[in-house]
Amino acid sequence: SAVISQKPSRDICQRGTSLTIQCQVDSQVTMMFWYRQQPGQSLTLIATANQGSEATYESGFVIDKFPISRPNLTFSTLTVSNMSPEDSSIYLCSVGGGGLAGGLYNEQFFGPGTRLTVL
Amino acid sequence: AQSVSQHNHHVILSEAASLELGCNYSYGGTVNLFWYVQYPGQHLQLLLKYFSGDPLVKGIKGFEAEFIKSKFSFNLRKPSVQWSDTAEYFCAVNPDRDDKIIFGKGTRLHILP
Questions:
Q1: Rounded distance, CA A38 to CA A44, Å?
Q2: Looking at per-residue confidence, does B102 or B79 come out higher?
Q3: Do B43 and A33 touch (CB under 8 A)?
Q4: How, if at all, do strands A10-13 and A114-118 pair?
Q5: Predicted local confidence at residue B111, as pLDDT
Q6: Mean pLDDT over each residue of chain A, to the nearest integer
Q7: What's the CA dihedral at A62, B102, A35, A71 to 10 degrees?
Q8: Residue in B30, B100, B105 to test binding to A, most A beta-carbons within 10 Å
């Protein structure tokens, strides 16, 4: 299994500012995923963060709004840029089971989430 | 587009009642199937998973799920619920050879003591 931590756990931000969320894993993984869970909604995949290459974004999400870094095999950041109240959500980091093999060979492990409120 | 449908958004049961939460997916190929649970204030965690083999899979805490390929369904069951099962339950599908998981909207389960 993988243990994932996220920082910050929660934040309240002003409209127009940016917030960077950090995700740390206790083992090396090839693929990390960033999800958004809006109030009363399901988890929506924002992007897949691959070490050594550009993140792959899902439809409706763009790099300018959600830039992602993946400097090594245990760490990633997601930035929510130029925030608006619609960005209020829980942001979750996850990794696929399988260690360095990455991918969903067994299951995905999730971090505790970052609860973001934009005023 | 691939999607996952959970039929019940909010379920309220008394302790010892039987539980069945419906899940259907839309994808014609091979899939891996999951149920995740999120207890109040805790992380998402895996309840059970189906990759291949026996379509009836057993998970933690007495939960089980049955994969019915012809119905594109993966319903979650528990014969006798407990107050501690109060949580939100998410059905999820991983199309084979894809790295992504598609989640349903979740079912909020509330067990009355």
A1: 8
A2: B79
A3: no
A4: parallel
A5: 97
A6: 88
A7: -80
A8: B100
